[in-house]
Amino acid sequence: MAKVISFANQKGGVGKSTLCIQQAFYLALQKKKKVLVLDMDGQGNTSSRLAPRRELRMVTTSPSSQDQNRRAVRLRAGRIEVMHCLRCRPHSYAEKRPGSV
């Protein structure tokens, strides 16, 4: 069964990105779990650390950009499209403002 772990705080500089990356690596490498990291921060520090070669592109969440999202969001290992792994449409949750969920 899937579990959701969120790292959130309104204050900047408290280690959210660092903690998220460390937890993702721990779960993937030590516990052999499948991990999907969604970086919803405008600065994109987590994305830039996980894909330093700029393999990730900006992904929009509007329904009209679904095809663009399918091409843009790819996993690094094996180049598998993430969209095929998700059980919901990403924009159905991403349109909500932080704190409104």
From TrEMBL:
Residues 2-51 form the AAA domain. It comes from the Bacteria. It holds the Pfam family AAA_31. InterPro entries: AAA_dom (IPR025669), DNA_Partitioning_ATPase (IPR050678), P-loop_NTPase (IPR027417). Keywords: Plasmid. This is AAA domain-containing protein. It comes from Klebsiella pneumoniae. The lineage of its organism: Bacteria, Pseudomonadati, Pseudomonadota, Gammaproteobacteria, Enterobacterales.
